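Homework-ish question, so no full write-ups if that breaks the rules, but can someone show me the predicted structure for this set?
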Amino acid sequence: NAGVTQTPKFQVLKTGQSMTLQCAQDMNHNSMYWYRQDPGMGLRLIYYSASEGTTDKGEVPNGYNVSRLNKREFSLRLESAAPSQTSVYFCASRQGRDRADTEAFFGQGTRLTVV
Amino acid sequence: AQKVTQAQTEISVVEKEDVTLDCVYETRDTTYYLFWYKQPPSGELVFLIRRNSFDEQNEISGRYSWNFQKSTSSFNFTITASQVVDSAVYFCALSELETSGSRLTFGEGTQLTVNP
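A: Not a homework solution, just the prediction itself:
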């Protein structure tokens, strides 16, 4: 059982380049999340999808777009990367929707550097 | 809006000391859930505990204990007789049932270093 799988694990981009971070879960979870982790800032929510077909902005959505492709997959796109987007990105999923009590399961993270 | 504050950025202790990690939250909901996660140096996020807003009983699991107090909006985490393997970043998180659907908000994290 793979849980939450994120790709890639590492990426270096030049300023202005675009890329998509992929995330897939095999736990039949309704809700999926994208967070970024920066030193001293904790885990900040970028976007989330409470259920298939819905997406909502989190605390720091600017510069990002998301797609909930189906129940399993939730991708994060950087259209024009900026150095301020250098971070570690985590995808997570949980049963969610009307189950706010369920814990989230996390991917291994993507370390992104924008130069 | 939901918010979680972990005011202690870094804590350093010597092995076998007890240490308490603070977590303060803000919410308008009456039904909500609090979580603690551990992030060891390897980087993965590990779920430790969940608590719902109607259950203020303290919980103990081995050397770990959690103190939930609605009156002060706090959900603190104590490690008794700390060990080097406890060194990690610890995150507190909040999920509301009513107003924000499935949103899950984390605090800033506390970096705990346990020295031998």
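Now go work out the reasoning yourself. Hint: Chain A touches chain B through 31 residues (CB under 8 Å).
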